[in-house]
Amino acid sequence: MKGSIAILFLLLLACSSRPTTQAGKAPAQSPEKALPNIVFILADDMGYGDAGCYNPESKIPTPAIDRLAAEGIRFTDAHAPGAWCVPSRYGFITGQYPLRANMDLKRGSLVAKDRPTVGSLLQRNGYRTAMIGKWHLGFEGVSDWNKVDYRQPFRGGPVDRGFDYFFGMHASLDIPPYFYLENNRCVTAPADSVAGHQSPGATTAISGAFWRGGKIAPDFKHQEVLPTFTRKAVSFMESHVKEQRKQPFFLYVALTGPHTPWVAQPPFAGKSAAGEYGDFTMQVDYSVGEILKTLEKLGIAENTLVIFSSDNGPVWFTEDVQKFNHRATANFRGMKVDAWEGGHRVPFIARWPGKIGPNTTSAQPLCFTDMLATFAAVVGDSLPPNEKRDSYDMLPALLNKGTAQRKGLVVEGHTVREGDWKLIFGSGMGVLHRQYGKGNAPVGKGELYNLHEDPAETRNLYDTHPEKVAELTRRMEQYRAEGSAASESHSHK
Q: Which residues, at least 6 apart from 468, have a Cβ–Cβ distance to it below 8 Å?
């Protein structure tokens, strides 16, 4: 009898054991404790100063984003790891600085096969993972879109890098070819052609309803993309709750606005005081609102961590500020691609009812790369040192129960920050400003700012603080050296 009881006990123990993670450690939570759903919404080219919760003088109504901030925490020192789409998204997906990999899309898929991602992390912890929207991290073997066989599967994309489901686009809404992908297949091949487009009277050649000419699928309409992605995100959540309610999900929604073309639909056209850009940003806010409403309708809002941010700064020139009296980057200098704060300081809002207090703010420095370690902390996973080198656990800051270890950050290979000090190698003005704007900046060896004393970056201290320049240069050299080693150990296969 005692032997039978012992055998029964061992069988019960085996059945109740939890799966181990790739790092060799089981998640801290038991299966009986419900893990939260996670929704990460990433706007495209939305500025720090566009939402009213960040800029009371904004000319753009953003009720959904403002509500999210009122019900959660708003970070005031959050940054993208890149000042443009590709490196920024790479940092979010992989948890590592983009300087550790080659950001040339002609190389194919930028995310190596063996590189852990936020998707694969959550997959191994029992999550169903989905991505809706803009990928912009390449596909294996695709270096020239004019030589693509659209009948073949696209490898090295989201479904090969940690996501169970994908519906979206290969790049931005102004970059051909224009077509949809579902999982790893082209939905309808881009067999037609579309001419390039611009808005009459746009401030610059790349403002307004601008897109480049090229191949396009017969059923593809630029104005319908943002609503399509919104519906797909809503549909995923509805079907998941209906079919797999007990399983947690991770939904990454990479919206295509307010990146150009600024093509707001009729309900939003002309409704802001910031032109076509403001109207399209209003539609982005509406998309956020639809996602939030769906969570409530499905009864899962209370157990869902929702994060909203933008991949980098806006395309908003000095001429736009003067024309509309709207400061898309608030009081920060610069815009998309610039190394100044306006290029990479972004809105970052998180809501988790019962966990994150309402209407709170945090000045904790944060970078997109931190999502890997933060999500690991949320699910109780353990990351090895090489996976979390550039990723810091922000859960204490999110829950307002302490500060994180992050004190500085790196933006691509041109900017390094430690504490209040920020060093830019060369000029802070990026290629978009130089090619299309009327602004100018002196070109020197570099720019050094104390962001505590001078957040608008008006006083370059490069020549007066050589010791700080040397210190930050050594720090960047250390990052670059680590990056070379990382690239060799995580080669593309």
A: 421, 423, 448, 461
Cα(125)–Cα(291) distance, rounded to whole angstroms? 24
Q: What single letter denotes the amino acid at residue 444? A: G
Side chain identity at 414, as an amino acid letter?
H
Model confidence pLDDT, tens digit, residues 217-250 = 999 999 999 999 999 999 999 999 999 989 999 9
Q: How confident is the model at residue 387 (pLDDT cuts 50, 70, 90)?
A: confident
Q: Which CATH number fits domain 33-400: 3.40.50.720, 3.30.230.10, 3.20.20.150, 3.40.720.10?
A: 3.40.720.10
Say how many C-beta atoms besides its own lie within 10 A of residue 184's C-beta: 16
pLDDT of residue 440: 67
Q: Quick one: how far is CA 92 from the chain centroid?
A: 6
On whether the CB atoms of residues 257 and 281 are closer than 8 A, the answer is yes
446 DSSP assignment = E
Residues 165-181 pLDDT 10s: 999 999 999 999 999 99
Instruction: Tell me which residue of 430, 385, 415 sits closest to 476, measured CA to CA.
Output: 415
**pLDDT (tens digit per residue) in 390-447:** 999 999 999 988 887 888 899 998 999 999 999 999 999 999 988 898 766 667 899 9
> What DSSP state is assigned to residue 17?
P
**Tokens 């920024």 found at:** 88
Structure token pair of residue 320:
């736009």
Label each residue of 373-435 as H, E or C.
Answer: HHHHHHHCCCCCCCCCCCCCCCHHHHCCCCCCCCCEEEECCCEEEECCEEEEECCCCCHHHHH
| Residue whose entry in the numeric block shows the structure tokens 């990723």 | 391
CA 363, chain centre distance (Å): 19
Name the amino acid, one letter, at 174. Answer: D
Q: Measure CA 492 to chain center.
A: 22
Amino acid code (one letter) for 150: Y
* Preceding amide of 266 cis, omega within 30: no
Catalytic residues: 85, 136
**For residues 95 and 387, what is the distance between their CA atoms, to the nearest angstrom?**
7
